Amino acid sequence: MSRIVVSSHPLIRHKLTLLRDVNTEPRKFRELIREITILLAYEATADLAVAPVKVQTPLAMADGFALQERIGLVPILRAGLGMVNGIWELMPQAEVWHIGLYRDERTLKPVEYYNKLPAAATVQVVLVLDPMLATGGSAVATVDILKRWGAGRIKYLGIIGAPEGVKALSQAHPDVEIYLAAIDSHLTPEPQKPGDPPRGFIVPGLGDAGDRQFGTG
Ligand code: PRP
Predict the structure, then answer these.
(1) Tens of pLDDT along 64-79?
(2) How many of the other CB atoms lie within 10 Å of CB of 79?
């Protein structure tokens, strides 16, 4: 069973509420994704290894620390892209490796369309970034790819998870920690009548995180 951290931080709760709002326009939506991701990353990076170093201040030598591990950010295209920049500002030395997956609308299975990982892993800690953990298919497939690559510790950072997705990722990869702002109620079923949302959307959720960021909905 994975370690699952659902933040109850007031700032995250406040910002998530604005993110869910159907009236939040793409510019504000992107800003909120960035801000929530930074807050989640603060928690998710609490165990990064540091080594003691000395630093010269204007007054004297002081004891300090330096990050030890090579960190990789792996956004799942497209929606994960909006989660990169905030964390990158915190850790400008991080490498960014993109994985392109889309969900087949009929089967809901992930289809890989972009992967330029080099032959051997270059990082020791990976943060997988994707706002929506719906069926969990995309997250499980991405972690499969990263484990075959030889990535070290892998953590998943999302914004909203469905119980189905959390369970699927946790069962497939119990060693992967999952950080979320919320776990919602359920996934939409097969549409019954015109106007019903497509199958496999998180309820209440926030709609399509890719479309809402990129203005393509
Ligand atoms: C969405 C979302 C996740 C995936 C979640 O992406 O951003 O990547 O679906 O679903 P799952 O847990 O059932 O796999 P989508 O396929 O819509 O692509 P997009 O980000 O390019 O819009």
Answers:
(1) 999 999 999 999 999 9
(2) 23
* pTM exceeds 0.90, yes or no: yes
Domain 4-214 -> CATH class: alpha beta
Give CA–CA dist 206/132, Å, rounded: 9
b/e map 14-49, b = 16+ CB within 10 Å: ebbebbbeeebeeeebbbbbbbbbbbbbeebbeeee
Beta strands in 169-214 (DSSP E): 177-180, 182-183, 186-187, 202-203
Distance (Å, rounded) from C-alpha 19 to C-alpha 140? 25
Closest atom of ligand 1 relative to the 137 alpha carbon: 14
Q: Where are the domains of the chain?
A: 4-214
Instruction: Return all residues near 74 (Cβ < 8 A) that are at least 6 apart.
Output: 80, 96, 97, 98, 99, 126, 127, 128, 129, 142, 146
Tokens of 210: 């890719």
Q: What is the pLDDT of residues 111-128, one digit of tens each?
A: 999 999 999 999 999 999
Residues in the ligand 1 pocket, defined by CB under 6 Å: 76-79, 102-103, 108, 110, 130, 132-139, 165, 200, 209-210
